[in-house]
């Protein structure tokens, strides 16, 4: 929710403080590069130190970063702040996803990741809408509430998340599993999908608010509502998508639901109003609610027990490369014609869905596809010990 509130107004806030298009692009690049560089170290810490401490440190650091926005007047300093913010943000999703893999067996992970994504989307349902409304009063309120929410979240994690450090280090012989385990074919399939999936994040970090504001005629409040329209179907439908991921071949669900999203990119490119785009957001989110838990459950199943934090970090790192490519490539394309980034994203996403799901289907019965299952022999005792 804190991220959703800030993402609604960050670009507009920096722009109001004299930030040029070059500054906005540099901010996105700084965040993504920093996040990418810090992924593996945080994943290593999550495997060695534990999921809970990493999550708490990351949430507190993000809260502090949100407060610093209010102290900056020089636009160039926003770039430096995004470096620190990217390092802090790198700790969150990989650690949380690794914790879910620790807590649930494979036959329940689709539903578990579905519920996790549902709560994640609820944050983006209320966060951008609240950010848009608070921005009407003043940008200061957006950042102050984001600080508060993240600090409260750190307390919730401290009190509610069980320790998983013992689980993360209990697999005997796992230390001998090297980089080849992180780059096995089933995992590479997921990494490729993450790359294409994060192209939109690169667009969102640099251009999406400007696109909606200047080419679709949306007010700041409507931009927040548009983000919430994306989040609502996901929050409602992703638990159902998780159930599908536990019952049917995950590669097939990813292929069908992934390709079903492509017409929406054409809709975005052709739209002149925010309202068709909001309809597209709702439809795309409904299909993505099937893709997301299927990919997450596939990654968890293909991950060696003692390296789940690092696998999740590598998975996210590949996605960040996609976001970095998007942020770097889409800005000059946008300067030529604002429709070009949307068209390129559509082709890119369709390509990675075809390649990634094909690799999953090809490798599911091969030794590479079940390598992680062999490495997970101690998993049931570890789960029992955790419970």
What does this protein structure show overall?
This protein is mainly alpha-helical. The chain has one domain (2-161, 177-386): Growth Hormone, Chain: A (Up-down Bundle). The protein is 84% helix and 0% strand. It contains 20 helices and no strands. It has helices spanning 2-16, 21-48, 51-68, 75-89, 92-103, 106-137, 139-160, 165-168, 179-182, 185-197, 199-206, 208-215, 220-247, 250-259, 262-270, 274-301, 308-336, 340-363, 367-375, 379-386. α1 packs parallel to α6 and α10 (185-197) runs antiparallel to α16 (274-301). The longest helix is centred in the N-terminal third of the chain and has 32 residues, at 106-137. It is globular, with a radius of gyration of 20 Å. The two termini are 29 Å apart. Residues 166-177 and 367-387 have low confidence and may be disordered.
Mean of pLDDT: 84
Counted beta strands: 0
Strand content: under 5%
What would you call the shape? globular
Classify the oligomer: single chain
CATH architecture: Up-down Bundle
The run of helices and strands is HHHHHHHHHHHHHHHHHHHH
Number of folding domains? 1
Work out the helicity level: over 70%
- Class from helix and strand fractions: mainly alpha
> What's the CATH topology label?
Growth Hormone, Chain: A
CATH C-level name: Mainly Alpha
How would you sum up the major sheet?
none
Total helix count? 20
- CATH homology superfamily: MFS general substrate transporter like domains
In terms of per-residue confidence, which ranges show pLDDT below 50 for 5 or more consecutive residues?
A: 166-177, 367-387
What is the CA–CA distance across the termini?
29 Å
Q: Provide the gyration radius in Å.
A: 20 Å
């Amino acid at each position: 929710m804190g991220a959703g509130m800030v993402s609604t107004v960050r670009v507009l806030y920096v722009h109001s403080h004299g930030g040029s298009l070059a500054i906005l692009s540099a901010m996105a690049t700084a965040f993504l590069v920093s996040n990418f560089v810090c992924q593996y170290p945080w994943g290593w810490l999550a495997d060695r130190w534990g999921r809970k401490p990493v999550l708490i440190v990351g949430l507190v650091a993000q809260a502090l970063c949100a407060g610093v926005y209010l102290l900056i007047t020089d636009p160039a300093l926003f770039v430096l702040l995004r470096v620190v913010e990217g390092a802090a943000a790198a700790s969150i999703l990989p650690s949380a996803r690794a914790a879910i893999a620790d807590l649930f067996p494979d036959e329940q992970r689709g539903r578990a990741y579905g519920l996790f994504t549902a709560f994640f989307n609820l944050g983006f349902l209320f966060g951008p809408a609240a950010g848009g409304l608070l921005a009407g009063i003043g940008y200061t309120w957006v950042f102050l509430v984001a600080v508060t929410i993240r600090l409260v979240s750190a307390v919730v994690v401290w009190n509610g998340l069980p320790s998983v450090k013992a689980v993360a280090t209990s697999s005997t012989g796992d230390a001998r599993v090297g980089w080849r385990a992180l780059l096995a074919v089933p995992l590479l399939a997921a990494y490729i999908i993450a790359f294409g999936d994060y192209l939109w994040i690169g667009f969102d970090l640099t251009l999406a608010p400007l696109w909606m504001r200047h080419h679709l005629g949306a007010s700041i409040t409507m931009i927040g509502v548009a983000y919430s329209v994306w989040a609502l179907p996901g929050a409602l439908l992703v638990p159902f998508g998780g159930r599908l991921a536990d019952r049917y071949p995950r590669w097939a669900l990813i292929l069908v639901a992934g390709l079903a999203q492509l017409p929406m990119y054409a809709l975005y490119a052709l739209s002149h109003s925010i309202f068709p785009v909001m309809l597209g957001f709702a439809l795309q989110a409904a299909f993505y609610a099937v893709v997301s838990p299927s990919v997450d459950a596939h990654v968890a199943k293909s991950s060696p027990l003692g390296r789940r934090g690092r696998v999740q970090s590598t998975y996210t790192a590949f996605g960040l490369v996609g976001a970095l490519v998007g942020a770097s490539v889409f800005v000059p394309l946008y300067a030529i014609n604002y429709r070009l980034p949307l068209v390129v994203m559509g082709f890119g996403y369709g390509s990675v869905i075809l390649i990634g799901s094909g690799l999953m289907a090809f490798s599911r019965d091969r030794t590479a596809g079940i390598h992680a299952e062999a490495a997970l022999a101690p998993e049931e005792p570890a789960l029992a010990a955790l419970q």
